[in-house]
Amino acid sequence: MVPAVSPLPRVPRLVVMTDRTPTDADDRDDAAPDEESTWLTIGRHSVKLVVLAVVIFLIIHFAFPALAGVRKSLEVVKDANVWWIGVAALCSFLTQAMYIVVFRYSVGGTEGEVERKLGWRESYEVTMASQAASTLVTAAGAGGIALFLWVLARAGFSKTESVARTIAFLAFHYVIYLGAIVLFGFGLYFGILPGAAPVSLTLIPAIVCLGLLGIVTLAAYNPGVVERYVERRSRGAGREGRLAKRLVSVPTAFAAGIRHSRSLFRPGAHGPKIMVAAVLYWVFNIAILAACFEAFGVHANLAGLVQGFFIGSAANLLPLLPGGVGSVEAGLIGALLAFNQPGAQVVVAVLAYRLVGYWLPTLLQAVAYFQLNRTLGEWKEQQGEEAGAEPALLEAVDAAGAAGDSTLTTESRA
Fold first, then answer.
1. CA 244 to CA 43: how far, in whole Å?
2. CA-based torsion, 367, 95, 314, 309: positive or negative
3. Is there a contact between 380 and 216 (Cβ–Cβ < 8 Å)?
4. What is the DSSP code (8-state) at residue 122?
5. Model confidence, pTM
6. Which long-range contacts (CB under 8 A, 24 or more apart) does 47-52 make?
7. Could you tell me where the beta strands, DSSP code E, fall in 241-400?
8. Residue 317 gets which letter from DSSP?
9. How confident is the model over 29-52, as pLDDT tens digits?
10. CB-facing half-sphere around the CA of 321: CA atoms within 13 A
11. d(CA 288, CA 276)
12. What is the DSSP letter of 323?
């Protein structure tokens, strides 16, 4: 799952009725939020538009020629090696296992009463159910992150703790994601690693991701600098000032998550285990794709396969269909073809990867969704709460998805 700011249910606005006659000033005040909302919506979706443009470019220049030979691709399917498909299926379940390990040690724990609620069984249920929620609410796993926050609140964590632990969980995964694009992008472009090196998929993404890592590091180790800059901007008038006001709390929330991540590396903590599991999560993900290529008789170039996987997976940012159906496949096919992987095998290998790596675990994820509902009921009974006091899990996730314009950081300031 490619990381993004997660939507949370919007808090209803309290309206006070008075006998005062509306004035022109009131009309202007009422109009300002609409203008601000439009501006913020454009800003929040700008990254998705860039990704969409890249995906369209990949489809036009690489995917269409490959799909023109779709009959040849279908002929390749008949010669698939089922043993390699079995290896891909094994790697798929190992990927799920690593995801659970990262959650268990970065979000849960064994130190306090609340942390002990998130044992291995609960960690399995939450992580698997979150992936099911991400299928329902697309855009880089937004539904899954919303479910994380809601479950942590039900477990007894404060809003600040819930946000910090969720950010820590995401940081462990996506710092590796960004770092891999930098490493393989520069390695391919400068000839350190063998393989094709299109500048648009090696050098440029590497520079962008290096800049993002720099911003992450600055916000993590010196959030005051970023916060003071944003606060100064928030004092201004116009759209920029209003946007800055909405972002004032972002550095603080992000730094809290990074502080929690760093605390996991103190002596006797589980930081090293988490890092190993996070790296293996991506390794097994790429191994699924590599095994699917082997199943169709292709020994893919490793560096091109890794870079193509990470660049193509960015299409998951596009909330077009549940589970990123269509956009992820197109992004992966286009990116891998750009690295000179054979066209007929690329199409079937990517489709097999999505089938084994994404759809195969969905049965377990759906079961875990209902198991988590039962676990939440047990927590409710332990806390002496009245049954039915909270919305059902599925309703909570649906509500989170419906309120897509609310951001995690702005809601967490309350």
1. 12
2. negative
3. no
4. H
5. 0.73
6. 47/317, 48/139, 48/317, 48/318, 48/319, 51/314, 51/315, 51/317, 51/318, 52/318
7. none
8. G
9. 443 444 444 334 444 444 554 555
10. 7
11. 18
12. G
